[in-house]
Amino acid sequence: MRPNMFFRILPLLILLASCGQDEPDYRLMWQHAHHLDDARMAAMYGEPRDDMNCIFGAILEAVEGNWDKVADLTAGSRTSDLFAYYHNLAMAMEGHLADSLMYYYQPFERGLFLPVGETSGQLRIAASSEVWFRLGEMTMAEHSAMLAQIFSPEHFGVPYLKRLAEINMVNGQDEAARKYLRLLSKEEGCSEWVSDRLPGRESKAVKDCMDGLRRLAPKTDMVHNPSDYRGVLKNLLASNPDNALARQYLLCLDIVIKDLEHFIEDYDPSRDRSRLYDEAVLIFLAQRNAITSQNLAHFAIPQEVLQDFSDYNDMVNFNQGAMEPMQKKYGKTYWFFYQYAKRNVK
């Protein structure tokens, strides 16, 4: 092909490629899922924006368990609790939470759990149930899903009906599940989803998923503050030590809130392997003047990570604690997060 011909058709090639990569119109899907007309949709959520389309998409795709799509929709450098929450969940569902944690914006515990209160926005409430459901904590999941339904536009929303139907399936409350499924059966595009979940006639994939979640449910009830995330996670793990998602969330919660004493208590170096954990251990040991060969061997700290920690501290001293030069080289380490990340005062 002659060069001038190539450059003539290049815009067409780019256009064709971009058409194949377009994201679905999640805003329109959200609008239909909540029975909103154009005016009500604009009043609730403003004019169309890319970031809002991504959040609508993350909520909708997470309910379906499409974690690769959730990860793609929330990747990037946006400083948003909702983006962090869904991206962390997508990474955790793939077993990569610890390895990815420092590569994205982390608003402390708000990137793992979304607190819901009287000043919470509707989208935050809509999202808050998803982590609890995946962890197997159905009481918290149902509470959040009901709040989402109550505070949604017109007190209706397909994502919340789906979540409530599945929560009741996990809990063995078949009649309640049927109630939500009957409502969903009237919604366009939901007939196959409903038929796969009819109690007693579930598809194999759905039955396996519900059985798996049922095994994660805590065997002991506990009275707790809604923000006692660590207590809930510990209770889940006491009931099922193989709850891998709860284990990832417990360790990473300790890390993002900089609670290294509890991290060391929760951490098992024989089963939990990540450079993130190695970096946290070294801070804990350094604070206690306990970087000894015995402790390094116990925690299986690689020599490379130990050397990097020494270099990090040398650079901090050389730059007299200035943040900018440290960020360029060590911005994706826990050492940088622990030393420089500050909570926003709201």
Brief write-up:
It contains 22 helices and no strands. By secondary structure, the chain is mostly helical.
Order of helices and strands: HHHHHHHHHHHHHHHHHHHHHH
DSSP summary, beta strand count: 0
Number of structural domains? 2
pLDDT under 50 segments (min length 5)?
1-20
Cα-atom radius of gyration: 23 Å
Largest beta sheet, briefly? none
State which percent range the strand residues make up. Answer: under 5%
Termini separation comes to 60 Å
- The mean pLDDT is 91
Number of helices: 22
Backbone structural class: mainly alpha
Helix content: 55-70%
What is the overall silhouette?
globular
Any overview of this molecule?
The structure is a single chain. The protein has 346 residues and is mainly α. The chain folds into 2 domains: 20-216; 258-340, no CATH class. The protein is 65% helix and 0% strand. The protein is built from 22 helices and no strands. The protein is globular. The chain starts with a helix and ends in a 6-residue tail after the last helix.
Annotation keywords:
single chain; 346 residues; mainly alpha; 2 domains; disordered N terminus
Topology:
Blueprint: H1 3-21, H2 26-33, H3 38-45, H4 50-63, H5 67-74, H6 81-93, H7 97-100, H8 122-127, H9 129-135, H10 138-151, H11 158-170, H12 174-185, H13 191-195, H14 204-216, H15 229-239, H16 244-256, H17 260-266, H18 275-287, H19 293-298, H20 303-318, H21 323-330, H22 334-340
